[in-house]
Amino acid sequence: MRKAAFPAALATAVLLLLSSATAEIRDLKISADERPMILFEKFGFTHTGHVTISVSGVSVTSSVSRPDPSSLGFFLLSEEALIQVLLEFQQNPSLCVLDSKYINLLFTFRDLSPPPNSSFSKPYPVTVPNEYSLFFANCAPKSQVTMEVRTEIYNLDAGGVRDYLSAGRTQLPTLFFLFSLAYFAFLGFWIYLCITNKLSVHRIHLLMAVLLLMKALNLICAAEDKHYVKMTGTPHGWDVLFYLFQSIRVLLLFTVIVLIGTGWSFLKPFLQEREKKVLMIVIPLQVLANVASIVIGETGPFIKDWITWNQLFLLVDIVCCCAIIFPIVWSIRSLRETSKTDGKAARNLAKLTLFRQFYIVVIGYLYFTRIVVFALRTIAAYKYQWVSNAAEEVASLAFYVVMFYMFKPAEKNEYLALDDEEEEAAEMALKSEEFEL
């Protein structure tokens, strides 16, 4: 029965392997764990790759018989070999994965030092470039494993210096730093624009400036985080600042989109009850999403509820993405109804055009960053995992530029200041169904 659980465990591993490759020096504690397989790390190796595993305080308990030490151990598995292992299980359901000819077996518990220490430590070179996952397998029936594990996974660069980032992510520190400079420059230009148009600046514009600042700080902390992990294997505290600014940035982004969608401060000085309810839904959900993001990033697939946290983050993110669309749709409908009675067709047509374009921009941004980026991350070769991060940052920067341009402070906003002679043409346009969503 124990060995029969491996196909299901490997199927779960397929889902886990869809996550991004991560690596740094990790010290983990496994307590009374009975899972047949545990995924520790996923890493893209070059031809100079190395993996060092140290285990200590190992104890195995079983309710049926004394476990065979050779039925528990660590191994590396590539995604290509994973398919072959699954085919092996179809032919022989009782097979232990440690006996598969498609895995790279590192060691079994037979190699442990005698009790009471029961420890083992050894570096292993990886000379065949590929993306591998580090697994622990437990083929002993009805057994529980307790141990402390330390993993060090890295590649050696041309100078023989250790690089703890996966082969496809070693470019991330430079990438994030360059984008942080772009956002700092963007923030400087936005401040200049607000100063030169003081009479047209509203509270939403100040909130947008704070959003730019949080995005720039988030990226500079991400760059430092990845740089220290790359060089030393640990983030040196930069991960704390990264998650702090990321949480504030994401919360501000959704809030700004909702407030712009309602027309707050530049069209009306207050929020309606239903708009307040959207914020009351989005803000707590984003707090929950940020907690899930931290758990996902700071632990790893070795914890039992890692998939659950991923599913929770995905669900909350989808709900928030749907929720922020409603205020934009409400504003479009409200402006269309108002245009029939207030006699300001040209101005209402301009507002409708603005909000309809904003609706399309938001939908495009959410679609690209949630679906296209995920597809790139899934299909890109492990050496080019950075491309999905670059695509996400390019799309985000483009979205910020378009959104800030559309709602920039200006005394004569091209959307909101039209001549009276355009009234007749505007009235004809408003009678059409062009603005129905």
Structure description:
- This protein is an alpha+beta fold and 437 residues long.
- Helices cover 52% and strands 17% of the residues.
- It contains 11 helices and 9 strands.
- The protein has helices spanning 6-17, 79-91, 172-196, 203-232, 238-262, 273-298, 306-323, 325-339, 345-379, 386-406, 423-431; strands spanning 26-33, 37-45, 49-62, 72-78, 104-108, 120-126, 130-138, 143-156, 162-163.
- A hairpin with a 5-residue loop joins strand 8 (143-156) and strand 9 (162-163).
- Helix 1 (6-17) packs antiparallel against helix 2 (79-91) and helix 3 (172-196) packs parallel to helix 10.
- The longest helix is centred in the last third of the chain and has 35 residues, at 345-379.
- The radius of gyration is 27 Å and the shape is elongated.
- Mean pLDDT is 84; it is low at 414-420.
